[in-house]
Amino acid sequence: MAKMNFYDDTWDLRVEVCPCDVQFVDWLEKSRIHNSNIFHFGSGSHHIIGVRNAEGNSGNHILSITASPGEYDAFVKLVIERPEVERNYKCIFGDIYQLDDRLLPEFDVVTLFHLCEFYDERNVANNTLTDRQVLDLLTAKTRRGGYILFYTKSFAFNTAEKLLPAWEKEAGMERVGMHDLLLVYRKK
Fold it and tell me: Fewer Cβ within 10 Å of end Cβ, the chain: N or C?
């Protein structure tokens, strides 16, 4: 068994480099997404989605995943200082390729901004899910009428994009369009 595939760094909020989380919050507000269950892949050490959720009146419930010990530590520090953030925002530490559908609720919105960025030989050695299997699992956990979003400027989007045509057809997904750099799909 290989060691877990984790991210040995943290990602601070650098909107000029990676605006996806800020654009996502803007999309939620513009789309009037309220009282929804949201799955977010890649919290960042900034946890801006959770912070903005606590500051607004959306009533959204967000489950975020990070494979960065530093980002998880930042979450712990954040919610100790600002417990109101944790009320509707939880961050788990783990490898997205080891998700178990039995542990997940249904979601109204799923972000897969970092799909295809982290799969490597450790995942193969640990017999984890592939990127397509992660996509399929989270699609199955998305309610009809729910949304799945991708970040088109991810360094691995060209790889993730190759998965989308077959997935779109097989999963009954409808391409809604773009919101800034986010590609939005809706489950029929």
Answer: N
CA distance 172 to 177: 16
> Sign of the CA dihedral 19, 42, 112, 54?
negative
Mention every residue, 6+ apart, whose C-beta is less than 8 A from residue 67: 4, 5, 6, 7, 93, 94, 95, 96, 118
At 149, list the tokens.
């979003």
Q: Rounded to two decimals, what is the model's pTM?
A: 0.95
Q: Which two tokens stand for residue 125?
A: 């050695």
Contacts of 60 (CB under 8 A, 6+ apart): 28, 33, 34, 35, 36, 37, 38, 53, 88
Here the tokens at position 103 are 């542990």
Q: Among 58, 51, 62, 53, which Cα is nearest to 32's?
A: 58
Q: Is the dihedral of CA 48, 152, 164, 6 positive or negative?
A: negative
At 102 the three-state DSSP class reads: helix
Q: What is the DSSP string of 121-177?
A: HHHHHTT---HHHHHHHHHHTEEEEEEEEEETTSTTHHHHHHHHHHHHHHHTEEEEE
